[in-house]
Amino acid sequence: MSKSKMIRPLEVTQDIVLALYRRVSTDKQADEGYSLDVQMEKLQAYAKTMSNVKDTRLYTDDGYSGSSLDRPGMKHMIEDIESGVITHVVVVKLDRLSRSQKDTLHLIEDVMIPANVAFISIMESFNTDTPFGRAMVGILSVFAQLERENIFERTRGGMQKRVEKGYWPGGGRTPYGYDYDTTQGILIPNEEAKMVRHIYDRYLAGAGMQEIADELDLKYERVVYNIITRKSNAGYIVYNGEEYRGRHEPIISLETYQQAMQLLASRSAAKLVTKTEHLLTGFCYCGKCGARMRYMKWGKAGYKLVCYSQQRSKQYLVRDPDCDVPAPYAEDVEAGVIQTLFAVSKEKLANAQKSVQSGSVSDMLQEQLDRAEVKLRRLYGLYGDSGDVYLLETINKTKADIDRLTASIADENAKQEVALSVLSVYQRLEGIQDAWPNMSIQEQRIVLSSVIDRITISADYTDVKLKFKLSA
Q1: Each residue of 12-26: pLDDT tens digit?
Q2: Domains in the chain: how many in total?
Q3: Segment (H or E) for 434
Q4: From CA 145, how far away is CA 165, in angstroms rounded?
Q5: What's the whole-number mean pLDDT along residues 232-249?
Q6: For a surface tag, which of 3, 28, 408, 449 has the fewest beta carbons within 10 Å of its beta carbon?
Q7: Could you give the residue ranges of the DSSP H alpha helices within 274-359?
Q8: pLDDT of 135-177, one tens digit each?
């Protein structure tokens, strides 16, 4: 839930420049007492009650709806607010500023408050230059957020029910091989469905994704991957992580889809472990352009790690055609990575173990949070019984305390998770250092894949990012 930003009170000695804003959209509104002249009289009368007024500026929108901020007077006033020309904005009634709660909050929280400009609505006695007025901004934010969440839940709930009944949720891209029938609300196979079946047949027959993409004149092998892994082809709808049986006609059988997924899994595992003779294949990225790096035979000297941006074999892997990062010898990088892997400080790991065993800080913070929540419930009860507006400040302070404690607990829990990760990694590495020279490349790569996230190589350094933080 969004938090209200707090505007600092203006000094009483500060010269005040008032922005008097008036708006009328129809003749009927003018007849009902909202004419520009009537608004002007009330605004000027209010301005005379304020001290230290150095200047007043009038902004008018005649014949403009309050449902949009696209009004000349409003735009001019916003420009003056952001340039620091004015200190207060005054309107006769809140709906003269806007009829949209979302736009009202945007103007107050995102335009006026950052510029230290107070907002005053005469008829509602709304003044963000007072503690009560600032509290009211927070209350409006709460209700605006609630309404946004209600709209989201209603939309998501309606979409969820459609999907549960087997209808396509709509929106986004229609899957390759289908058209979307808006009348029936389902997918209809089109002429491209034949190509989808062909892709599955070729893949299950042993063809690689790049080979299939080249045969069909598709731009990238990723296109083939996206088609193969899309379960809608087998008559299912995947929505919010859940699968539902769709009403649309499948292009392939569920059995075909499952066979393709099993083959994909086996090929991925084989690619990681057995289909390479190089230790760091798949881990290395260019520190200059961010592209992947590959092993390249470098005469009799061995192999170098070369940025894919400097190669043209796979155009979709090129990040910067002008990348000139030097290609280091793979043997040197491998030695450095292994050295880093076994240079993890046992002292830091021991400290992490102590941190895991000690939950005193989290327990203390949780006790404070429990007391604050009890206090907040009591304050809400008192406010409901008395209506004492001064309680709102205490309520807001207690809510801020709860937010702070909640964030602190989350931070402590995150530290605990990091410590556990470090300990887990240490347990994996324990005893491996002595055995490392006798392990096969495949066995070594399995260890690396469980510990290393990525390796970034630039002209000046090689950075090994592990799947845990050494600062834990």
Answers
A1: 446 899 999 999 876
A2: 4
A3: helix 432-435
A4: 30
A5: 87
A6: 28
A7: 330-341, 346-357
A8: 666 666 565 556 556 656 665 666 778 888 888 887 667 899 9
What whole-number distance in Å separates Cα of residue 5 and Cα of residue 113? Answer: 7
Clarify whether 83 is annotated catalytic.
Answer: no
Say whether both 68 and 188 belong to one domain: no
In a shared domain, residues 108 and 47: yes
Q: Taking CA 397 as the corner, what is the angle to CA 394 and CA 399, rounded to the nearest 5 degrees?
A: 110
* Amino acid occupying residue 358: S
Structure tokens at 212: 């299939």
Domain that holds residue 86: 16-145
CATH number for 269: 3.90.1750.20
Q: Indicate whether 11 belongs to any domain.
A: no
- Look-up: residue for tokens 């420049």? 17
Binning the chain into helix, strand and coil, the percentages to the nearest 5 are: 55, 15, 30
**Regarding beta strands 303-307 and 452-457, do their DSSP bridges make them parallel or antiparallel, or are they unpaired?**
unpaired
Q: Do 187 and 230 share a structural domain?
A: yes
Three-state DSSP class for residue 330 = helix
> CA-to-CA distance for 60 and 426, rounded, in angstroms?
69
The number of helices, as runs of H, and strands, as runs of E, in the chain is 16, 14
CB atoms within 10 A of CB 271: 12
Cα-flanking dihedrals φ and ψ of residue 371, to 5°?
Answer: -65, -40
DSSP bridge partners of 242: 239
Q: Name which of 211, 26, 7 is nearest 128 in CA terms.
A: 7
| Planar angle of CA 380, 386, 391, nearest 5 degrees | 55
Q: Which of 25, 121, 309, 355 is catalytic?
A: 25
Quick one: pLDDT at residue 340? 79
**Residue 132 has which token pair?**
């009560």
Cross-strand pairs, 430: none
Alpha carbon 287 to chain centroid, angstroms: 25
Contacts (Cβ under 8 Å, ≥6 apart) of 283: 448, 452, 454, 455
Domain contains 169: no
- Report the C-alpha gap between 456 and 328 in whole angstroms: 12
Is 461 within a domain? Answer: yes
Q: 224 exposed, middle or buried (CB, 10 Å; 0-12, 13-18, 19+)?
A: buried
Query: In this structure, is residue 413 part of a structural domain?
Result: yes
Whether residues 378 and 307 fall in one domain:
no
Cα-to-chain-centroid distance, residue 345: 34
261-313 per-position pLDDT tens digit = 877 876 665 555 545 788 898 889 999 999 999 999 998 888 999 999 988 77
* CA 119 – CA 128 distance, rounded (Å): 5
pTM over 0.85: no
How would DSSP label each residue in 35-104? -HHHHHHHHHHHHHTSSSEEEEEEEEEES--TT-S--HHHHHHHHHHHTT--SEEEESSHHHH-S-HHHH
